[in-house]
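Shift notes (night). Ran Ribonuclease T while the centrifuge was going.
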Amino acid sequence: MIETGPLAPALVAQPTLATRFRGYLPVVVDVETGGFDWNKHALLEIAVQPLELDGDGRLVPGAVASAHVVPAPGTLIDPKSLEVTGIDIDHPFRDAKPERQALEQVFAPVRDAVKRHGCQRAILVGHNAHFDLNFLNAAVARSGHKRNPFHPFSVFDTVTLAGVAYGQTVLARAVQAAGLQWNAQEAHSAVYDTERTAELFCKIVNAWPAGAARG
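Came back to this:
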């Protein structure tokens, strides 16, 4: 029997991702590259992780999609970048895709998530987010990809959020300050950094507006 009248319990509408961020679906992104200049250095890896809501309306990481990328013709690779990332461009099991194909491999699940949540488009979440967005936009322009689901310039940056919440701006230190696990041996892969950034973003957002990011 359904209770009615003034003593009936209030029905509280569950939050949705379509309304939580003004119609944008937050999608965590990390790229590994051949250098720091998106105008000339190659995109080598990309991982994306759309975020979801659990039954309590809390933000949680969703499924990860990733791709290794064949350096686009005309782009450069700084050997020092490969020393940091540990990427072996010529590894026989790397299974790298041409840039346009790699982009579609990660864009397709993002578009599906945007549609499933009734959002208008994705918004990139990243650590130093404009670095990732600039490389993403450069690859989209180079490859002529026409179905980029991401907002072209707006982002959520966990550097800023972690600086406010924990006083830390380096990803490893911010993750640890948040009480989350960090494995330095796995860092600097697109998938690992995406997963840790997603955990960090979710923890900070879920603590708002209580102001207790330590919770």
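The two ends are 38 Å apart (CA to CA). Residues 178 and 214 are 7 Å apart (CA to CA).
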